[in-house]
Amino acid sequence: MRKPPCEVRMRYVLPALRMALATILEGEMGLSSYRVAKILGITPAALSNYKYSRRSDRRMYDMIMKDESYVALLRTWAKRLVEGEADPGSAICTLCQRAPVDIEHLPAG
Question: What angle do helix axes 88-98 and 5-22 make, rounded to 10 degrees?
């Protein structure tokens, strides 16, 4: 039996999204790891695991970051998070739903 789409996305897409947001927040916006973790609502240890692909699939991250229009959307949400205009749950949910991945080709779990 195939798992629900959100469950599949949670396992494969969510970690890559957190990794992508962390890359933008730290690399492009110059925030500290501690601040990024706080903004994303995760621990610094969890952030480290995402950044070093211990909790995320690098291939999924690469797939997401290849889509220029999606990266622009990531940057918009990153800015909203930094400015306190959005909460991490809303950002992740919206970004996950719009992620440029075909969940039909992801493992069923």
Answer: 110
